[in-house]
């Protein structure tokens, strides 16, 4: 099976999320309060059928690059990264990421995945700018983007409700050639 989206890195690679990736394990990431604490999916229970439908929808879309984060050593699927929606008129898109395997947290995999997705977006999708947001308490996410060469652009005061408290949002971006 050829991948619609693929890019190789030193410790991991990104490839299109496949229907076979939609497993109970993947669903468990989305329903785990520790993993989904800073994800919008936390507001509704995720099901295998729903995840399969989402994977199918993303695979058929020209507005998104929905990629699995896969370790080169052993081929383990540890998370996902999504570029999109793509604004073709202005050549920019958002990026979202989740590392679903907790034993892979804090090892730099998110930073490597962000760097690979950034390269893919600029070189393959011919985008000019990428944007992302992080909840301020999720410093691991913000730091992963910054370590991948992104810049902090601003703070969104009291934007997100987390554990009954409004927290700030951090906006980061990367512009091609800067």
How would you explain this protein's 3D organization?
There is one protein chain. The chain is an alpha+beta fold. The protein has a domain of 122 residues: Aminopeptidase (3-Layer(aba) Sandwich), CATH 3.40.630.30. Helix content is 25%, strand content 36%. It is built from 4 helices and 8 strands. An 8-stranded mixed β-sheet has the order 1-2-3-4-5-6-8-7, sandwiched between helices. It is globular and about 40 Å long.
**Broad shape:** globular
Helix-strand topology string? EEHHEEEHEHEE
Q: What is the mean pLDDT?
A: 95
Percent strand: 35-45%
Main sheet record: 8 strands, mixed
Superfamily (CATH H level) name of the domain at 6-127: Gcn5-related N-acetyltransferase (GNAT)
Helix content: 10-25%
Which CATH architecture of the domain at 6-127?
3-Layer(aba) Sandwich
CATH class of the domain at 6-127: Alpha Beta
Q: Which strand order does the major sheet show?
A: 1-2-3-4-5-6-8-7
The Cα radius of gyration reads 16 Å
Label the structural class.
alpha+beta
Model regions low in confidence, pLDDT < 50 over at least 5 residues? none
| Count of DSSP H/I helices | 4
Looking at the structure, the CATH topology of the domain at 6-127 is Aminopeptidase
State the separation between the terminal residues, measured CA to CA: 36 Å
Overall number of strands: 8
Key structural traits:
178 residues; globular; eight-stranded mixed sheet; Aminopeptidase; alpha+beta
